[in-house]
Amino acid sequence: INLQLLEKLYNKNCTSNKGFKYAYGTAGFRYNADVLNTVMFTTGILSVLRSIYLQNKTIGIMITASHNPPQDNGVKIVEPMGEMLDQSWESIATDLANSASNSYNDFITYLNHLIKDKGIDLIDTSNGIGSVIVGRDSRESGPRLLETVLDAVYCFQHDSTERVSKILDAGILTTPQLHYLVYKTNVAKTLEKNEIGIGCYFDDFTRAWLDLCELYGFSTEHLKFALTIDAANGVGGFQMEKMISLLFTLCKTTVDGGNSTNISIVNNDWQKPNLLNNKCGADYVKTNQCLPNGVVSNSKFSTGGENTQKLNCSFDGDADRVIFYYQDNENKSSFHLLDGDRISTLFAKFFQHLLKESGLLDASDNDIKVGVVQTAYANGNSTKYITEVLKMDVSCTPTGVKHLHHEAVEKYDIGIYFEANGHGTIVFSEKIKSLVNNSMSNGNKALKTIEIFTRLINRTVGDAISDMLGVLAVLCILNLTPQDWYNEYSDLPNKLIKVVVPDRTVFKTTNAERQLVSPAGLQGKIDELVSSYGADSRSFVRASGTEDAVRVYAESSTKEMAESLAEKVGQLVS
Ligand code: 16G
Ligand code: ZN
């Protein structure tokens, strides 16, 4: 580390909001962009150290604040195989940021302690001196914050030589693209290939999609649906545009030779950062249960005939979430939401069907475990549908992708996880992959389909683009209309409210956030209230990990009862 340079660049980047207290939250650091410089600098430093600590594997940095408003931004670190930062390093990230926020002396003291404690060797650099890939979403503050990260990485310049840590500025891309790029880079490294660019993302996912088209005889331009994608005026639209144009150029089954009219992107003004997530995007649609700006109701919705089905979906600002919906007429009550729970149940039904067809279940010693991971926010009827109708296993974890992902990997060979808000993916164990590969030669279509899905779904993290393609493929293969999908079960009416309290940290939960252990006695009162609302009722309270507030969720057999239950529990909390 070049100490002279470090001090100079610390002074340049870390003095504008001395004393600010940072915390690595559910999905990294996330604040108003004006207070982020210090934490950008320390995150840059930490990611190089993490890279050296992991024998020089490539680490990712994503600059984004997802569905937050345009004035916010944030940063998170991505591990070599594309996972979220190891949880034991989250507090290190927090402590390093806060030491820098205090003073240069505190920063250097903590930095030295960290380097020593982790045994990070900055002297013998024969293996390299760290390798980092940085990506950002379309926010206005992105380029400025990127500069700070680059400054930090630059401090690792080795003595007076030109050797510096390797850093790749991957530009504007979606969060899941960055995760995927980091993963592919590390795989390529072990294969001793040269650096790869984001082209690998498009190559891999278009290949998988086209393989499915070929296997089932559908084509991108002759989908059974007219699909409108609301890109939240974020980076997802711009990347999706690239994907679509590739899919159409590569698709060999072009019949009319014309371009598609059945996939369109709205809210695609990613170059106007002040429009980001404004009255559009997955979070807006899920929260308000209505169409976003720019999507008109499908008044000409027709239930019969090919190519007349209309379906919409919304991405969030960094395109790691997707939810679907349709509305048959102007009447708001005809708005039908197909959220993360519905995506889970659709994939669960699909893989159950494929496994039956594949013959893999016949050999009992295969013992293939398929299951769905949800959070407390999953609609009670979705859980019932999975366990009672599909007769599949469900597990519940605390909110936050890292928890769901971990559970899906630990417990299942095919682990399907989605938060109700649309963030999720499917993970396939090495065991199922090799079972599939070993039996595939017999021309079994179901096996081939599973194999393609292991490539169509982004293995690293929830990905709006890849999940969307997955859903479209399932609807085509199972020959389901959006209404069929919607009619598999009916949601219990529910209500989510936010309560601002003096200190949200006193709200501590257990049992995957479904019960409070603190404040003492509160859970008893909630239980009492819930039982007075009848059998289908449920409510839970948890402190938000991204906002200074407490969230109250309630569901019951009618909309009025769900709303009243949420309100009453809210009163108990405040
Ligand atoms: C973050 C999480 C998201 C979770 C949300 C909950 C990731 C990548 N993102 O956005 O999964 O649903 O936080 O927010 O893990 P809350 O704690 O404010 O309710
Ligand atoms: Zn997001």
UniProtKB/TrEMBL annotation:
Pathway(s) per entry: Nucleotide-sugar biosynthesis; UDP-N-acetyl-alpha-D-glucosamine biosynthesis; N-acetyl-alpha-D-glucosamine 1-phosphate from alpha-D-glucosamine 6-phosphate (route I): step 2/2
Cofactor names: Mg(2+)
Which domain of life does the protein's organism represent? Eukaryota
Q: Where does Mg(2+) bind?
A: 66, 316, 318, 320
Positions with a binding annotation for substrate: 419-421, 542-546, 551
Q: Which residues form the Phosphoacetylglucosamine mutase AMG1 domain?
A: 201-323, 339-478
Q: PROSITE patterns of this UniProt entry?
A: PGM_PMM
The record, for CDD domains, names: PGM3 (cd03086)
Alphabetical UniProt keywords: Isomerase, Magnesium, Metal-binding, Phosphoprotein
Q: What is its EC number?
A: 5.4.2.3
Q: Does the UniProt entry include the keyword Metal-binding?
A: yes
Cofactor binding comment, as recorded: Binds 1 Mg(2+) ion per subunit.
User: Which residues does the UniProt record annotate as the domain Alpha-D-phosphohexomutase alpha/beta/alpha?
Assistant: 33-92
**A GO BP term, please?**
carbohydrate metabolic process
Which GO-annotated molecular functions does the record name?
magnesium ion binding; phosphoacetylglucosamine mutase activity
Q: Which InterPro entries match?
A: A-D-PHexomutase_a/b/a-I, A-D-PHexomutase_a/b/a-I/II/III, A-D-PHexomutase_C, A-D-PHexomutase_C_sf, A-D-PHexomutase_CS, AMG1_II, AMG1_III, PAGM
Entry-linked Pfam families:
AMG1_II, AMG1_III, PGM_PMM_I, PGM_PMM_IV
* Cited Gene3D superfamilies: Alpha-D-Glucose-1,6-Bisphosphate, subunit A, domain 3, Alpha-D-phosphohexomutase, C-terminal domain
Functionally, this protein is described as follows: Catalyzes the conversion of GlcNAc-6-P into GlcNAc-1-P during the synthesis of uridine diphosphate/UDP-GlcNAc, which is a biosynthetic precursor of chitin and also supplies the amino sugars for N-linked oligosaccharides of glycoproteins.
Membership in a protein family: Belongs to the phosphohexose mutase family.
Q: What is this protein called?
A: Phosphoacetylglucosamine mutase
Task: Name the source organism.
Answer: Saccharomycodes ludwigii
